[in-house]
Design a protein that fits this description.
The chain is of the alpha/beta class. Helices cover about 35% and strands about 20% of the residues. The chain contains 15 helices and 16 strands. Strands 1, 2, 3, 4, 5, 14, 15 and 16 form an 8-stranded mixed sheet that branches. Strands 6-7-8-9-10-11-12-13 form an 8-stranded parallel sheet. The protein is globular and about 70 Å long. The structure holds N-(iminomethyl)-L-glutamic acid (NIG) and fe (iii) ion (FE). The site of fe (iii) ion has 4 residues, from loops. N-(iminomethyl)-L-glutamic acid (NIG) binds near residues 121, 249, 325, 326 and 327.
Amino acid sequence: MTPEGEGSQPLLVRDLAQVATPAGKSAPVRGADLGAIDVLEDAFVLCGDGRIEAVGSMRDLPPLGDDVEELDGRGLSAVPGLVDCHTHACFAGDRVEEFALRAAGATYEELHAAGGGILSTVRATRAASEAELVAILERHAAWMLRAGTTTFEAKSGYGLDRETELAQLRAIETVGGAPTWLGAHAVPPEFAERGPDAYVDFLVADVLPEAARIAEAADVFLERGAFDAEQARRYLTACAAAGLEVRLHGDQFTESGAIPLAIELGARSVDHLEKTGAAGTEALSASDVTGVLLPASALFLDRPMPPAQELVEAGAAIALATDFNPGSAYCESLPLVCSLACTQLRLSPAHALAACTVNAAHVLARADRKGRLAAGFDADVVLVADDDWRHLAYHLAGPVVHSVIRAGRIAWSSPA
Ligand code: NIG
Ligand code: FE
């Protein structure tokens, strides 16, 4: 298979007001490095064969051949294509009814316990064909692209049976996402009597062998009413032995041991952390596990925000993601998440940019080619509609994305 963009016409984005990219070369960035963004003014980005060939000042632009397509960057700034490292974008149906019930006072946990919530999306997703799942995910991926996301992860977890879990993973692969197997998302109705232990047995014996051929990582919902730490350990240990990276949904509603387990298993990430206290913050910060913060989800459910400042100050590696899903975060916009990071998590625009580029790419094991604007990286670029790149976070829910370049091609442009 030819890599995306290979053999395509070179593209020069010229006269950019700013090119802004996380400084340095290593990943993840943490501590003082998290806020270090290199900004080059009056600059260009040159793309060829799907890669970035050069980034530099306009005064250093070398003479180029006639075959180069040029894009006028005046009044715009460039940042790396955004990386959404935590979504549940492959789902059928919606939960607008539940949204209205929540507005009238019902809680997310109550709806889940009454057989709604995740399980209502499971019913809709089981009823969809694989071709329908692909079509739905293509639509969601187009929404994400318009918001500047050039790389996305998506989880299964709305099948909870062999056939639908695998169909979700294949659909994610087909649409170009990074597939994560979230078999342990909820206990499905057919296992209600036998319970979560029997369901984990089934996942490991009947689904894992094929899921491990498609997915890159495994994830679990470690939470009261879902899976406990022992069940999560058993599921994730089997997944790691099958070659999958390990991730956890943890500390969303209760601190139930997700951070110690993530550290014990060498997890790639532990995600949510709305209920993480001082001991968890300290332990996570001293580890190699990335904490993925999901402020759109906390906002959507009117939950406390994760302790972002404490994590950053203690030197944790943090990433930001949307958690895009029909129940707890019907939101595909990373620029909006960056706004929430600044207004609700009290991070700086620089922290937010690094957290949804280089550090999110690290969570997806792609930091060697995604998340920075530098020669040799994939030519994924967001052109921000202002001469100061920080408008990406500043303009709350505004039309901040002017154009999106993926693999060196213009993949989306805002209507003039
Ligand atoms: O990350 N918390 C568990 N899973 C998702 C929500 C899924 C849903 O409500 O459909 C989350 O918030
Ligand atoms: Fe999630």
